[in-house]
Each structure stands twice: as structure tokens, then as C-alpha cells.
Design a protein that fits this description.
By secondary structure, the chain is mainly α. It has 2 domains: 58 residues, Arc Repressor Mutant, subunit A (Orthogonal Bundle); 146 residues, Tetracycline Repressor, domain 2 (Orthogonal Bundle), CATH 1.10.357.10. The chain has 16 helices and no strands.
Length: 254
Amino acid sequence: MTVLRRKKAPVSRARSKGAKLSRGMGRGEILTEAMKLFSRHGYEGASTADIAAAAGLSQSVVLYHFGSKENLWREAMRGLFAKVNTQSLMNQEAFKDLDLLARLRIAIRRYAHLSAQTPEFGRVVTREGMTGGPRLRWLVEDLMPPKHNVFIRLLDEGIAAGVLKPCSSGHISMVMHITSNVIFLLAPLAEMITGKTSFSAEAVERHIDTVVDLLVSGLAVDPPARAAARSGKAKPAARRLAVRSPAKKRRAAQ
């Protein structure tokens, strides 16, 4: 008796795609789009369906990889915070020969550059910081604990050494984060006011130079410019303004 063998049905494209996804394909695309949409619309405003559509995948694929919207949000936040990791801004061994003000300048510059490259970070922190609640607590306690904040460490060191003015290191750390981020966080407003894009190389460097100068000079007990003036290294024009001739002094007294 002849046994008829059934031909195997061709594997559909959908099944083939599902097999690839089950091995991890698509996960990176989902996380990339999740970072963008959560930063723009917040947790409540971004759905798994929206994220799936942005990644060019189905909602079922998103849930297959992450199980729930909460799990997806947490994984997206881990990836986002890893891109702007303040704990690794300063390699203490590499920069230990520099004075504290120089190390503080380097830390601010590095953080500001990372903020320009990843504006989603500032948007998420601002949005969750305004809302408060369990998600913010998780971000602070798990992803950015204050004891690992490089700005707080440098500020505490500088205050203890008498190099920086007495202040709340936590408060000033917030000022540093927000000021470094402001033109990237509020890019449309900044561009309307300045008439220039916030993300051009020129705009980024100009912003960082301004932030570093304002923050470090304002916090330093003895800013470099004042120290140079006292040591006699001030520019001639500055010295001429500071030293009056006897005749000018008499006229001023009259």
C-alpha cells in the first residue's frame, strides 16, 4: 500500500518573523522607541500600542518581550539612565592630580554634553519630578541614588576644604543638573528666544561655557579672576581702573 506523505506547509513570513523575535530581535527597537515616547508623553501618555507602532512591530511582540507596560518603562529607564550616568562622569584616579575646581568643571562639561546627546533624560526627570510618586522614588533610589551623585561628592569635598562657599550640596546639584539641561529640555522655547537651534555644535559649546563659568565662579570662595587680580596678574586695563592718580583722588574727594 502506498503511503502518501503530506507536504510541509511553507513557513509564513509572520511565523518566521515571530521566531526571530522570540530570539530577541526587536527588543532593542522597542526600547529605543519607548525611551522617546515616555520622555515626550510621560508614562500615562505613551501606550504599548503606540510604542509597538513606532518600532514597526505588533503590541503582542512588546508584551512578549516585557510582559507589561510597567516592566517596559523600567527597562527603558535603565537604558536611558545608563546613557547619562553621573557616577562615571569623573574617573577619580585619572583626575586626582587636578584641583577641585578643575574637576568640577570637567564633571559639568561631561554631563552637559551627555544631556545634549540624550535630551530624553532631562525630560523624563523633569516630568517625573513634577508628578512625584512611586515611579520617581524608584528612579531616585534605584537609578540615581544621591550618594553616587558626582556633583554632591565634589561639592561636599570643596565645602569641607574651604574651596567652595558653604551651601546645600543637594540643592546646588539640582541647579547644576537643571542649568546644564535647560536649552535642550526647552529647545523650542530656546530657539524662539535665541533664533538658533539648541543642538548645533556651536550652541552646545557656548551654553556649556556659560554654565561652567557661572556655576564654578559663583561657587568658588576665591574665583581664578579675583585670585589673579590679588596676585598682580590682572590685565593692565583692570589695574589702571583700580589705581587712581593723586589728582583724580583729590577731584573725587571734592
